[in-house]
């Protein structure tokens, strides 16, 4: 599989871009003219730089507004094209992109454009180069790949072909099946980009909001299926104009790009097994069944605090690890692990020294743990392994958000019996059961500009989908929240919160924990009111919620006063959607702003109580730092 990315897609100067692109695993690069013009090196030197990085230059894009020009402009664009053909020889690339004319003085007409391209093809042939024609979605006369193809067809020249760009086709909702009629060898290159669905001017949307295939909402897989059906087997080139990516980490964005291409082609290959493009073999996306455990690392006093909090939630210590300073706390199907091996050279110890006490790992229940790691590795995720003591099972794992660890457990005998084989039972009676049954979801906090990275990470490896993004208003700024859920909607659930500002509660947690990942864990109960009573008996202190919230709730949902009084008395938050009802209780915070949540879903409530988040945040801010949150 030949993979390429346009230099405009990532940040940095020209050498930095090439290095990041090569490191991420691309085999080629599209040189955007500005990157080339602003870098002080000759075309030969640029060719050498790409070669040194092992990159082929797949495409050069040196000028625009070519076809259909009246004289005297027509003569000038032909001269210009020839000058660029000379440069291409030195650059060591044979393919030039010309996008459809946007000039107000250009003249329309398919035959006129075809004649211009035929004449250009003659000149290109003399230089041994090829020219690809791309329909811009906002081209003055040509804005549809079907018309661009008709021009190329009528030009009838071996050195003239079409360039397809998923954005231009999909943004205008052009039927992708029209691509199937184009002979694969007349498609000179394919550019891929996705974008979030936003209703705005096409040019502005394209120049600022494109993102990696799989990160947006466009049907890029359908587009690529149609392309693959033509027999095309050339490079797949990302051309991503995105304001955030331009300022982001070149390394991370390039890695996301490579992952997105592998992911998109894996999907295409499964739908069109006979395609000519070679796609790396890997197991299919893995069904995620749920979160089986969450593991904290904590020092002695933090461990005592966490134990007290867990005990007030009805957990009891039920196991101790055979070899390690690791304890297991359980209730219902929930397992919480506390690792206090902070002095050692273990990964937990390293995590503690960077982040302090934190939930640095979680275990995911999957269909096939080994296959999960194979797939994750094929998609560029770092595989995680630690030295084992005798008798310990190797649990397949990778690293994810905030360098945290994701372990995979399945029903194979060794992994299924890990809790009985590696832990000695401890006969501690819980102070009382709170009725918590399972982990409903975990919530991870990241910097906003990493959200797309992690959403792509989860959705490409696991059989999951993203829910729409919601804005959560924190007095210190906006936090954006999006969930990743297994396709059945309830097996696995994870929410991602992207914080821009350290003045928000989430942003502050991120800053003070030096970028750990899990900020809260939500436990499910089948009866929130019974759980609330049990918790009170256990001495649990719920996060107190303002009286105004309940007045508003009563009005908004038309609640019976008795019902809203019961909610208020137990500090329960409430929401409702078409499917059902949602109840939430929050704990007070632990450490730098970690907390637990208890939820009950009645009926088919599908959300996470986003509309309640501002009230939860306001309450946390009141309690967390009575002296106030930082203002810097
Ligand atoms: O926005 C543009 O001008 C532009 C230029 C070249 C392309 O290949 C493209 O898709 C867009
Ligand atoms: Mg393009």
Task: Report on this structure.
The model has no long low-confidence stretch (mean pLDDT 94). The protein has three domains: 3-271, Alpha-Beta Barrel (TIM Barrel), CATH 3.20.20; 288-425, 2,3-Dihydroxybiphenyl 1,2-Dioxygenase, domain 1, CATH 3.10.180.10; 436-623, 2,3-Dihydroxybiphenyl 1,2-Dioxygenase, domain 1. The strands form three sheets. A nine-stranded mixed sheet has the order 14-15-16-13-9-12-11-10-17. Strands 18, 19, 20, 21, 22, 23, 24, 25 and 26 form a nine-stranded mixed sheet that branches. Strands 3-2-1-8-7-6-5-4 form an eight-stranded parallel sheet. Helix content is 35%, strand content 25%. It contains 22 helices and 26 strands. With 632 residues, it is α/β, with parallel strands linked by helices. Magnesium ion (MG) is lined by residues 134, 165, 191, 239.
């Amino acid at each position: 599989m030949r993979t390429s990315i346009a230099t405009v897609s990532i940040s940095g100067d020209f050498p930095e871009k090439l290095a990041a692109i090569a490191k991420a695993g691309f085999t080629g690069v599209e040189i955007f003219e500005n990157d080339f013009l602003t870098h002080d090196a000759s075309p030969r030197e640029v060719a050498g730089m790409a070669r040194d990085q092992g990159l082929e230059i797949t495409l050069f894009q040196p000028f625009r507004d070519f076809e259909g020009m009246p004289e005297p402009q027509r003569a000038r664009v032909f001269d210009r094209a020839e000058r660029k053909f000379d440069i291409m020889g030195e650059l060591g690339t044979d393919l030039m992109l010309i996008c459809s004319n946007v000039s107000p003085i250009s003249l329309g007409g398919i035959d006129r454009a075809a004649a211009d391209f035929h004449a250009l093809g003659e000149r290109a042939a003399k230089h041994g180069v090829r020219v690809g024609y791309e329909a811009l979605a906002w081209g003055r006369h040509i804005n549809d790949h079907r018309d661009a193809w008709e021009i190329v067809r009528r030009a009838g020249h071996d050195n003239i072909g079409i360039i397809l760009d998923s954005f231009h086709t999909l943004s205008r909702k052009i039927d992708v099946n029209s691509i199937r009629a184009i002979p694969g060898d007349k498609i000179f290159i394919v550019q891929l980009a996705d974008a979030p669905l936003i209703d705005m001017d096409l040019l502005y949307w394209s120049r600022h909001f494109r993102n990696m295939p799989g990160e947006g909402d466009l049907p890029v897989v359908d587009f690529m299926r149609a392309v693959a059906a033509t027999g095309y087997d050339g490079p797949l080139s990302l051309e991503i104009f995105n304001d955030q990516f331009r300022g982001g980490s070149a390394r991370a964005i390039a890695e996301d790009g490579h992952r997105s291409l592998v992911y998109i082609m894996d999907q295409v290959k499964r739908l069109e097994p006979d395609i000519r493009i070679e796609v790396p073999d890997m197991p299919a996306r893995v069904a995620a069944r749920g979160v089986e455990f969450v593991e904290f690392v904590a020092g002695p006093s933090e461990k005592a605090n966490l134990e007290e909090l867990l005990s007030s939630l009805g957990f009891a210590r039920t196991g101790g690890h055979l070899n390690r300073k690791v304890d297991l706390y359980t209730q219902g199907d929930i397992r919480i692990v506390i690792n206090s091996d902070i002095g050692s050279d273990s990964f937990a110890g390293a995590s503690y020294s960077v982040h302090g006490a934190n939930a640095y790992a979680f275990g995911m229940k999957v269909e096939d743990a080994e296959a999960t790691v194979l797939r994750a590795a094929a998609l560029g995720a770092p595989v995680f392994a630690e030295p084992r003591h005798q008798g310990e099972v190797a649990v397949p794992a990778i690293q994810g958000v905030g360098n945290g660890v994701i372990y995979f457990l399945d029903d194979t005998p060794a992994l299924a019996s890990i809790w009985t084989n590696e832990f000695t039972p401890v006969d501690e009676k819980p102070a009382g059961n709170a009725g918590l049954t399972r982990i409903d979801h975990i919530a991870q906090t990241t910097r906003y500009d990493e959200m797309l990275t992690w959403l792509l990470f989860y959705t490409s490896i696991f059989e999951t989908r993203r829910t729409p993004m919601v804005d959560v208003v924190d007095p210190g700024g906006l936090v954006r929240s999006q969930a990743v859920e297994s396709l059945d909607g309830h097996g696995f659930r994870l929410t991602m919160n992207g914080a821009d500002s350290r003045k928000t509660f989430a942003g502050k947690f991120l800053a003070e924990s030096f970028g750990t990942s899990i900020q809260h864990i939500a436990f499910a109960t089948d009866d929130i009111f019974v759980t609330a009573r049990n918790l009170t008996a256990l001495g649990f202190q719920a996060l107190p919620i303002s009286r105004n919230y309940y007045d508003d709730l009563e009005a908004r949902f038309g609640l019976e006063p008795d019902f809203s009084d019961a909610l208020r008395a137990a500090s329960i938050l409430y929401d409702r959607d078409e499917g059902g009802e949602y109840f939430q209780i929050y704990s007070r915070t632990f450490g730098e702003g970690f907390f637990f949540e208890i939820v009950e879903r009645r009926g088919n409530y599908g959300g996470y109580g986003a509309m309640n988040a501002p009230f939860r945040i306001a309450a946390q801010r009141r309690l967390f730092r009575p002296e106030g949150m930082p203002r810097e």
